[in-house]
Structure formats: structure tokens, C-alpha cells
Amino acid sequence: MTSTVHQYDLTDCDREPIHRPGNIQNFGALIALNADWIVAHRSANLSDILGRDHAPTIGARLGEHFVPTAMTQLREAAGQLDEGDTTGNSADLVSRLFGISLMGNGDLFDIAVHRTGRLVVIELEPHAPGGELTHLGGLRPLMQRLARHNDVGDLCADAARQMKTLLGFDRVMVYRFHPDGSGEVFAEAREPRLEPFLNLRYPHTDIPQQARTLYLRNLLRIIADVDATPVPIEPATTLEGAPLDLSLSTLRAVSPIHLEYLRNMGVAASLSISIVVGGKLWGLFACHHYEPRSASYSLRTTAELFAQLFALQLELAISTAGSRVAERGRQLHDRLMTRLVGGTALVENLATLDSVIGQVIPHDGASAFVDGDYRCRGAAPSEEEFMALVPALNAASTSQIIATEALADLLSAAAAFADRACGALVIPVSRRPRDYVVLWRRDLPQVVVWAGRPEKAVDYGPNGPRLSPRKSFEAWQQSVEGRSTPWTPEELTVAEHVRITLLEVILRLSDEQMVERQRAAEQQELLIAELNHRVRNILTLIRGLVSQSRSEGTSIEQFADLVGGRIRALALAHDNITREQWAPASLHDLIRTEAEAYLSGKIQRVSITGPDVLVAPEAYTVLALVLHEMMTNSAKYGSLCDSSGRLAIDTRLDKLGDLQISWRESGGPPVRPPQRRGFGSTIIERSIPYELRGAANLRHKLSGVEADFTIPSRFVQPAGPGAAREPAEGFTLMERKGSEGTGTMQHVLVVEDSMIIAMDAEEALLGLGVPRVSVVSSVAGALPMLEQDRPDLALLDFNLGVESSEPIARALDAADIPYWFVTGYGDAIAQLGETSARGILQKPYSPADLAGILEEMRGG
User: Fold this and answer.
1) In angstroms, rounded to a whole number, what is the distance separating the alpha carbons of residues 18 and 7?
2) What is the DSSP letter of 461?
3) What pLDDT, in 10s, does the model give residues 639-662?
4) pLDDT tens-digit profile of 230-279?
5) CATH H-level, domain 747-857: superfamily
6) Which fold has domain 337-510?
7) Which among 307, 295, 299 has a CA at the least distance from the CA of 133?
8) 354 φ, ψ to 5°?
9) Is 132 exposed, middle or buried (0-12, 13-18, 19+ CB in 10 A)?
10) What is the SS3 assignment for 503?
């Protein structure tokens, strides 16, 4: 059956209507009204629908053709459109009437009524008897079946089967849209004879954006016969010249290109119903039949209602899945907060962060960039490669997660590491755009199966080029490289939980750092006070050493040696205990340090037995002085003063935990008790009992000196395995570098910012036979001298107040002049061992140390 569609508008009854071709399908009729006035051209097709005696005429009222009961029903249906919105806006609402007798002659019609602008549009179709009740009654069991599914995939597959049963079409597909606009056959129910379309992908051009916008307004779209000739609208425009808006029309025809598209697929009839979730177009029910098929209006209404109920069930399933994801996100939050406590910087916890997040969001690598510090694990860019991305990342929103399968498509700099990581999930973790945690995914070469080649062909006609539908729907495989596995919506939801959690962690760390800074400031004040106290104690101690030693030396030189040796012992002890931030230090290290410093060539004659122990700092310096005096006396008068004597030192912890030190000399010259009691003997016998409340017993036997010392347990603790360090470097020279020095040192340059130390070094060098010594205190003073008066050797104090002597060292390297660094920083200056310096001389140093340097330079 064919029909003609008319547009009726009484805005100007005297004007001649304008005729243009229309686009209405021919299985129904359409009437457009302004109030109830009719303006139209007679049409045999319309007469076929309503009957020749009842077809409307131009200038008549609709009530002249329809019975009063029908007119009342139509007015009520139009009135319901206004009731749908309290603002009077009836857009996108459609009133439906089933089995209405328009002429009172027993012919029944199904009617759809909607508004468009100032017009009321009535669409008429012949009624299928009894259909609406039968169809609506079958919805309940269908929905009960769907309600059993929680999984989105299972739900869609069952919905496709139920829709096929309801409509009787050969193929029903659930078509889902992807974020990039392409679509995929997500579920399918079909006749066995048909080839499957399941999982085929369709490019976004198959359903243009304007068509998708229409799908949100008009949920159902039917094409009863792709080969039927559309019926024109008469007139084609209103009297104002505007075409009739058919967006909500069920009968509106479709684009010839779309009809050609369906013919290419062998489809004779189609029906689509929008699936709207959360106000957005999630997908479609796409129904195909391979013969013409016109479903009744009541059946289509039932299918539309089924699709809407299904969409609610789908939204519930998605929400349920989202709730599970949210719960996983909360669990992830709890695990991260538990694992990331302790005040450690986020970048230092990257391994923990990576492993915890990896349990929920699979990835191949991770990066953290916080406060300018960059760390990475697994498949990830290097720091240089990542820094090239930061400016662009900083331009994005501070709270917006960036998820991409191919970062290089967004940021060209990412192409540098696309072979390692191409997919990125960028999580900003600060309020300012500067801190990020990024999860990376490797390239995953994929094969995407398209329904034909995804590019539409371009045909050339009388009006120029136009897109034509694809003419091949055989599965076409496309290899895709440079892309990772996509980040799923569930993973993005978890990533948002991670972002909030890491923000909380960073804020907590910031609070802890603020508290820590305040605590550090208070501690610094205490340290300054403690440093002041210790400096005063050291000065007082040195003054005491000088005062008590003045009666021991028979000459100025002997006196200087005595005092210098004791100060050196204190310096060595201080160096050992400050090496571990003023912590207990090894007793065996102390003994070896003393032996190495003063018994050059005799160290193999000293044996140390027993377990090592750690001695508290307050006892360490006391023991250093005692051992220094014992070692000095042995080297001068005891078993180590000749070539045959030996020294045995044994250490042990007794039952009370006190440290017992046994000193036994043997094989040396006969020992005679000293005729005079000096300050050294006082240090040996009285220091430990007086300062540590321990015990000291010194015995001068003919066979050798013996001594026993007891250090109370509160000052000692077991060293434990691996606690002992390498022997202290003391004042011995580093391993020599470069070529040997030759000849006599005629000119030595001393760079020292302390005048007293510089004068002492100058005096010592002159006393060792160096003819000329030049002393300067700065880089500016030294560099001109190197150009004008080349020295044979240089001693460089590393720290010259506000500058270092590194520029001088570079100039000496260029001039091939040997040099030694001089420093008081102990182990903290160990990095100087990587320079071209011949060695490092630690302060305080003695003339003997300088003599060793000169001897080495002479090749001795």
C-alpha cells in the first residue's frame, strides 16, 4: 500500500502552497496542523489510507473529516504533550493512540502525535488488531529473564535474543559505541543461515554525528522496504519557507546513501532502537531482515519500551560493576595508605606503588615525577625523555587524568620511546601541574576486524565528489601497531581513586615535612649549643694537654712532638666517631689507626685478638689518648723500639658485659720502671678510672710492659657481624697517581686560608729543606702565581671559606704540577679521590707527614 503525506498550515490560507519533493516512507500518512485547519493538495495516496470519501481537503477543518470522538482523542493526545513539561516545552514527547476509529466506519488506525514548532504532527498507520495487549503482556517475562544477569556481556547477549523473538527479524545486534566513535557488534542473535557479525568493528563514519544526535531524540527508526519509493510532503515548506522538521517522525525517510548501504549488505528492511544510558547514546539495537518487513506500530512501541527497560537494566549492571570497581578502589586506597606511611618521599616508594596498583591496573612500567625528582621502573622513558613531555603535560588540567593507547599521537616527543612504552595513564598528583605518576603499557600489535574496509569511497557525480557507502562487507583485517591495550572505564575509575589517594599521601607528607622542619630547626638550635659546648671543651682540653706536657720535653721540638701527637690522637678518635654521625665506633679500628699512624713498618708485629666492640663516643676519646700513650711508649722504649719485639692486644667482654683490654709486650729490650712520673703515665693510669669509672693497671716487667684496662659495660656494645669497618685512613697517603716526581723540591705552593696553619706548614717545609715556600689564601692569589712562578709541588686546602680550590686543581692538572689536597673533613671529602690529586692529607698534620710527601716526590 502506498500513501501520500500532506503538510497543513493555516498561517496564510490565500497563498499558493509551494510544492517540493518530500521524504516520507509510504506505509503510513502524515498530517501537519495549525490548530485544526487543513491546507493541502488532494492526493490519491492519502485517500487510499483514509478512504476517498474521508480524505481532507484544502482549507477545511480536520473535524470536517474525522468523527467528534476521534477529534476529542486527538486533542487530548496533543494536550498531553504540554503536560509533559511544567514549562510548557513539549519537545521530544510523543503521544500514542492505538485502534482509533477516525471516520466511524470501523477502520482503525494507530496514531502518533508530536509537536514541531507551532505545528502539531499526526502520523497514521493501519491498526493491527489485538497487537498492543499481546505485545505488552509479553514484556514481563522478558524483563524477568534479563534481571538475572549482572554481567554486561551476558545481559546484552540475552537482550539480543529476546528482541529477535519479539520482532521476528532475521538478525538482531547490540551495537556498542567506542570512545573514538567507531562501533562494534557487542552481541548478536541471528538465523543460522546468516554469517556472523559478532565483534566486527564499524568506522565512525558509518553513523555520522548528526545521526547520533537524532538517535537521542527519536529512539526508534524503521525502514520497512529499502526499495520502496518515498512519498513527498505537500507542500515541501511552510508558508514562511521553512521545511517541516521531521526529527521525531516515525515515517520519515532516510538518506539514499544509507539505503544503498543496506542494499550492499543484502538487507531489505531494518529497525534500530537507541540504547540510552545516563543520558548518553551507549549503543543501538540494530535489526536486519532480508525481505521487506513492516512491524506494526504497537509492536514497535513494545520493542521501544523493551529497549528502554533494558537500558535501565544495563545501567544497573554497569553501576553494579562500577560499585565493584569503587570497592576495589577503596581497598587500593587502604593498601596504599598502609604501605606509603612513614614520611618517605613518593618517588622513593615507586616500587611499592607499582606493585600495589599493578594488582588492579595491569601495566608494564611506571614513572613518578615529584618535586623535580624522577624515578622509573620497567618499560618506561628515561628522565631526559620524560622531561621532554613535562611542558605539554603541565598545560593540561591539574585534576584531569590523561589516558591514551598511543601517547605519541598526542605528544610527538613520546615517539622517542614508543618502542618501550606507547600507552600512558597519566595521573596528576598535585594541585599544581608539576607532579605525576604515570603507568605505561607496551606496544601490543593488534588485528582489528572491520566490516569491510573502514575508509568510505568517494564517487564523483554532477555535483562534485561525495561519500558513498562501502560496497564490501566481508571481514577486513587491519594490523594496528604503536598502540597498547586500551585503558578500560573501570581502570580509569580506579585511577581516579589512586589520584585522590596520592594527593592525600602528598598532603600528609607535606604536613609531616613541615613538622619535621620545625623539629629540625629546634634540633639545629640544640646542635649549635652543643657544638659551642664541645668547642669550649676541646679548647680547654688542648690547653690542659699543653699545660700538663710542658714538663716532659727537654727541648721545644720534643715538647711540640708530644703535644702534636696527643692532639693527633684526639683528632683520629674524633674522625672515627663522627664517621657514623657521632655513633659508637669500633675499638679494633682505633687500635689499628694508632698502629698505622705511628708504627710504620712495624704494624705486622702487632696482633689484635678477641671480638671487636663498639665504644660510645664519650669513652672513645679517652681510650684514644690512653692507647696513643701506650703505643708511643712502646715505639720509643718498649717491644716495638727494635726489630724483634712484639705487641699482643686482646679484647673480651666479661660476664658483666664490661670490656677487658689486655696489653702484653714481649721480645723487646729489658724494661725498667720510669724514674720520673710524667703526664703520659698519668693519662694511662688515671684517665679511665677518673672519667669512665673503670680500672687501669700498668706493670713494668723486665720481659715487657703489661697493662689491663676495664671499660664499664654502659660504654660498650658488641660490634655484631659485619660491623667492623676498613681501617681508618688516618694520616697515611693515598695511593699515588700519575707519574713519579723527580728531583729536589725547590718551590712549594701552600694554599691555606688559615694564617696560623699556613705559617706552621711554611715553617715545617723550610725546616725539611725546601728552599722556597709560597703561601696564598685564595684562588685569585694562586692562579697568577702558577703563570708567573711555577712551583714543583702544591698543597691545596680544599675548603677556602666561601670557595673551594678546585679551580686551582684544574690549573695544576693543565700545567702537570703534582698536588695534594689538605682537608679537615675526613671521610666526607672522599670524593676527592676521583681527582688527579696525588693524595689527601688530613688535618691536623705533622712535619713527618710533610716529610713523607717530599720523600715520595723525590722518588724515595
Assistant:
1) 11
2) E
3) 888 778 899 999 999 999 999 999
4) 887 777 776 777 788 888 888 888 888 788 888 888 899 999 999 999 88
5) Response regulator (3.40.50.2300)
6) Beta-Lactamase (3.30.450)
7) 299
8) -60, -45
9) buried
10) helix
